[in-house]
Amino acid sequence: MPRHDEITQLLARQGDAAEELRRAALRVKREIVGARVFLRGLIEFSNVCRCDCLYCGIRKSNAKVTRYTLDDDEILAGVQFAADHGYGAVVLQSGERNDDAFTDRVARLVEVIKHRFPALGVTLSCGEESIGVYRRWRAAGADRYLLRIESTNPVLFHKIHDTASRYELRKQALDDLRSAGFTVGSGVMIGIPGQTLDDLAHDLEFFRDMDLDMIGMGPYLAHGDTPMGQAHPDTGKEKCQRLELALNMIALTRLMLRDVNIAAATSLQAIAPLDGRQRGILAGANVIMPNVGETAHRKDYLLYDHKPGTDENADATRQSLEKSLREIGEEIAYFESGTPLHYTRRTTR
Ligand code: SAM
Question: pLDDT tens across 290-322, in order?
């Protein structure tokens, strides 16, 4: 296991040295999880949010956002699409709400999905909740939960969130998810203004020490209607640097954690529309999350400017994804829910 200063140096790699790191990660990926990529159908079912994260386009204070919540039929149509097209799992993601109407509805939806599609993995990504709510959602049949820690530097965490968000609570929520029996995923944004390589090295050590099963992380990208996006608009050069850094983060995650699932995030594709996600796979990721939700509302779930994916349901897009993965020697693992090996191992130890 690399020491902290070695991790920092590896993260700083560029050019051929960075490619060498990513190739090493790809070898570990292929040895441990195979030359296979799992698809998860992402459904962004509501952009209503009680939080005011300074970086996020759907933050509570952004009055320019048209708020929406998909109805059951719209959500189930997305799930049906995913099931019909061999996606092994769905991810239901939303803004954060803690009221009973919301938490009850999520529990009921999970029950319906699991009843109709028993083989489909169900991942939730709905933010911080009480352990009671997590237990209920798990009992309803949800398998996995994604909750990014965003940054493990508490000072940076508090700088980019509103005062109601606390680093300690976010970490507690991850512990609660594990106690509730979920397959637990977390991650960070990469390239947050003020973030250092030392911070990112700590993030990698946090992933390892928390014994996480899944990692989902990607470059931070500015949204022009947020305080962070306005204070620090992205330059093209910064975006390219963040993409390279994100690929090094993926590679080091694979090398350090080995048997976890790692997502090639949509924000990689936002910076490199032609091959961002493929480059993520080549750096050691093994999951892609195409959007299968209602297209009419996609423009209202803009976390950052120029978020891609408006035509992701199109047959042509899926065929080109399959072709480009085949070109790099990877195949899509259709109809497999793709439980992370790490979760299977830690729960049968
Ligand atoms: N409410 C849930 C939560 O907070 O976990 C899920 C939705 S939240 C919008 C999903 C993720 O979007 C966050 O964890 C954050 O990392 C990412 N995100 C938000 N704004 C972003 C930005 N400007 N650039 C990159 N990622 C962003």
Answer: 999 888 888 899 898 888 865 666 666 778 889
What SS3 state is found at 32? helix
- Of all atoms in ligand 1, which is nearest to the CA of residue 148? 14
Ligand 1: nearest atom to the Cα of 221: 24
DSSP 188-205: BEES-TT--HHHHHHHHH
228 Cα nearest atom in ligand 1: 23
Of the residues 137, 189, 203, 232, which should be mutated to test ligand 1's pocket, given the most ligand atoms within 8 Å of the CB? 189
Looking at the structure of the chain, the number of domains it has is 1
Residues 288, 289, 291, 293: what is their CA dihedral angle, to the nearest 10 degrees?
150
User: Can you give the residue range of the structural domain that contains 294?
Assistant: 4-348
CATH number of the domain encompassing residue 284? 3.20.20.70
How far apart, in whole angstroms, are the C-alpha atoms of residue 262 and residue 214? 6
pTM value is 0.97
150: Cβ contacts below 8 Å, ≥ 6 apart: 53, 157, 160, 161, 170, 188, 189
| CA-95 nearest atom, ligand 1 | 1
Q: Rg of the chain over CA atoms, in angstroms? A: 19
Mean pLDDT score of the chain: 95
- Assign 36 to helix, strand or coil: strand
Q: Which of 43, 45, 56, 301, when mutated, tests ligand 1's pocket best, judged by the most ligand atoms within 8 Å of its CB?
A: 56
* Ligand 1-lining residues (CB < 6 angstroms): 55-56, 58, 93, 95-96, 125-127, 147-148, 150, 189, 220-221, 223, 267, 303-304
